[in-house]
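Q: Hi! First time doing this. I have a protein sequence and I read that you can turn it into a structure. Is that right? Here it is:
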Amino acid sequence: MKLAAKLILIFMVGVLGIVALFSWQIVRQQREWSQQSNAESAVDLVNALKPTIEQAYRDGGTVQIQQAIEVTKRTTSGSAMRWIDPEKPDAVQQIPDAGAVDTETRSRSISRISISDKDGETKQFTYVPLTLPGDVTGAVEVAKPLLNSEANIRRSFQASALLLIGVTLLSGFVIYWGGLKLIASPLRKLIKQVEQIGEGEFGHPPAITSNDEFGQLAFAISQMSSRLQQQRETIEAETKTRLQTQQQLRHIDRLGTVGTLAAGVAHELGTPLNVVSGRAGLISSGQLSAADVSSSAQTIQKEAERMTAIIRQLLDFARRTGTEHASINLIQLARQTCELMQPLAKKAHVNLTVNADENLSVTTVGDTGQLQQVITNLISNAIQSIPDGGKIMIKVHSEQIQPPAIIESQHKHFACLEVIDTGIGMTDTETEHVFEPFYTTKDVGEGTGLGLSIAYGIVREHGGWIDVASEKNQGSTFRVWLPIDDQKDLQ
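A: Yes, that's right. Below is the predicted 3D structure, encoded as structure tokens:
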């Protein structure tokens, strides 16, 4: 409707301008024609009186001319005439109700002037020059009212005004109806379809089927909607495939870590299995007293529970996990992961400890299995970087920090989990590429180069980042930054 109103306004202004210009031109031409007609009538009248004026001049000079004109004026209706004598001083004649008018009668051209009196009556004074015998010049003034012509002009103006009003009303109605039917209604349909597309509703048929520009636009919008639908389906399929690939890579990396842990677990299970075997042998020999049999059975039960706990931890870690996010205590998660990695650390003669305040609550929101995989990867890499034994310390705390530019978040309170080792360290070049896929500093066959890349991706998905500080032969420090669960801390 706004567009139709604008079109109506623009069209009406144009029509008003054209009709007004046309009416003004008609009135001007009619006034000019009326004045020209009066002037021609005056010339014809003077030409008809010319013999009489010449005869009067011969009989008695210019005085006799005026008397002859006065006699003729009585027989002529509608026109007033008088003789303009060029011999009078300054050639200035007085026109009734108009003041003094300078009339140069020596000119041989016909002149005219229109003057309105105080009552609004308009008269036209036409001056017709005459040359009398003896080269005496003068002029006859013919005054004639313009009542009829002014009335015609007013009637023309009124007719033009009525025409203007009629054209405006008719044009306004036609444009309003046409704008409402031909523009406003199709535009509303197109806008509705575009809004549906903006809300994600694709695949609609054309909103308009007319064979004009609106129909072509509607068809183009419908085609665009169909292409967007196809692209969305393609993107969803590719995204699903990418997520599945990520999950598979993470699970493969997890299973690779499980294989590494299995060697340490096997060594860890050796001692309790020997205890169980020995105690079972003593019981089966029948040489133990009832009290010794009971003590041996308790020992077997205790060692079996210990082995069960170790195996359960390993199975829980190896199991494929989902992506359900919940509040996580990072200190507890770090301790559980260290317990799982202890057999591998002992086998490598590495002292693995967690340094965190038990009374401190450092929580974040995320997937427990994925974050445990991150910590496991970092500890596993740290163990492999210590070939001759050493120390690995896990620190957990919170800190106010400005996140890097790649993290699109206004959050400034983050949990920090540090993995500090006394290994061989890395050069600056190695630290620049350490999170790139398939980049590894290990020997051929000892790693795929995907562990840190997968860990980095998991942390980024949780709204955080990983940074590293390392010097060659001075060890490395990996810091995992994750958003603090403020709601949990407030409780």
